[in-house]
């Protein structure tokens, strides 16, 4: 029995040793390929390829609340936009919301004889009321081939450097964020100067027509977007240096609308000037920013101010027997936005800023005592907003942020028709509301 046990033990040890040897031989025959760092900070080389790759994104929690006049607290349907403020009493209670948000992006680049070839994709999901929800939305998906960009990304019109510094729920009056499908060409000229020219999706956010009031009301149904088939033409010229940067942008859009019997079109346009000035004499990393936007029949380029109402549709010959419907006029808007950021310490900063804007809708207010105007007058709406933001970054890539804002909308006594979206109907006063938000973001 002793010999049997000793023999069995010897056989077991021999088998185990043989298995380990086989494993070792397998490892030797198929070694793992090393992972190399690319010349680009934060990127690694995908083994066996010439692709430099990076994964990024963040996880975030947002807590926000507002007075009862401020609507659209659902993160899936909109932000705290001043144009959503309604008279006191239209909402029953003050609002409170919490939501989680996640974002992930993938960046792949390769150096070629044509320059850098790049693919970038970014997805985001937001959820506040289910155990698992918040379907992913596509924020960016584009290819860069040398100087060319193909796909969905920030509009060439934008100057993001002069945007307000706030938490996720806010878009301050005078700011705009547009991600559009486009084909763009960018040329650098040295000394910080560059020019970009693009054709962009003309049907972005589906521009709409506002119905006129009084005898200018259309004879048939309100106008529908006829989906102009020509793309928007957008361009900018930019200069950047140690002092900061500046940008001048322009865009042209063709409006085409129809109702049951008539079709009409009108060219709209928009312009932007953005400026950032670094102020290191006040504090390290401090800067001042300014932005001005003007639109005429191209409201999508200032959509967070007024929505995408581009034209006023009505009866072109209200005093004649033969009725014809057409675009009576274009909707105009302008806005100003200014911000100043000061770094009190390397980890704590604050930003104060505000914006002001006006939108004019021709012939949309009913005025029965002004017959020479066709029983209709222009509607003029003023919007303004101020905010204060605090940001604490105790460790890199983790930020605790809090801000408070006050917004006000003034209809200047106009009794707005029910077709004048997005503003509520029959409001003849100005109203304001406070809101506040807190968020924690960890990026990677």
Automatic annotation (TrEMBL):
Residues in the signal sequence: 1-21
The alphabetized UniProt keywords are:
Cell outer membrane, Ion transport, Membrane, Porin, Signal, Transmembrane, Transmembrane beta strand, Transport
Give the GO molecular function terms: porin activity
On whether Transport is a keyword of this UniProt record, the answer is: yes
Bilayer topology term:
Multi-pass membrane protein
| Main function | Forms passive diffusion pores that allow small molecular weight hydrophilic materials across the outer membrane.
GO biological process entries: monoatomic ion transport
What UniProt notes about the protein's domains is: Consists of 16-stranded beta-barrel sheets, with large surface-exposed loops, that form a transmembrane pore at the center of each barrel. The pore is partially ocluded by a peptide loop that folds into the pore lumen.
| Keyword field contains Transport | yes
Protein name (database record): Porin
GO cellular component terms, alphabetically, are: cell outer membrane; pore complex
The family note in this entry says: Belongs to the alphaproteobacteria porin family.
Q: Out of the domains of life, which is the source?
A: Bacteria
Where in the cell is the protein located?
Cell outer membrane
